[in-house]
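It would be a great kindness if you could assist me with a short task in structural biology. The matter concerns a single protein, recorded as an amino acid sequence and a row of backbone structure tokens. Kindly check, if you would, that the fold set down in the tokens agrees with what the sequence suggests. Thank you for your consideration; the sequence and its tokens are set out here:
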Amino acid sequence: MTQKISITNYIPADHSELLRLLLVLHSSYFDENAPKQFQELRQEKSMKSSYENYLTGIEKNKDDTWKILVAKTLSGKIAGFIIGSISEDEELVLGNIGRLEDWFVEPEFRKEGTGLVLYNELEKWFKSKGCKQVTSGTWEGNDLSISAHKKAGFFISEITFSKKI
């Protein structure tokens, strides 16, 4: 990384900046990159309210099944974040599953390894919690995300179909 970045656990003081970045990820970036049909199916009534509730729910989580990590510059600016959760599928041999929920790095901090460092720290947390696999999703055509996932060692394992009726 060319700029000095530190990875820290999310704290409530990060709330407003993380909310801003979630809205960037899920509004402008999503609008620019996701297929139009998919955008229509995933359009939210109030994106800000939806992501405010999402963050508040994670903050209230007391069973340690959610983790938010942030990448901060020396000045304290959040350059990126990653959010993960853990679930259990008792029917699977590798049923303790880490789920990469959201992952975003500000454009000026991309191609410096920030995203991979965030992911590696989240994976360490998953392993410490006994996870045996990690899943994640993106939408068709999100080449930046697909490339980042492949760099982190993921393979494409499933295709989901959607249809408006």
About this structure: Strands lie at 5-9, 66-73, 78-88, 96-105, 133-136. The domain at 5-151 is CATH 3.40.630.30 (Aminopeptidase).
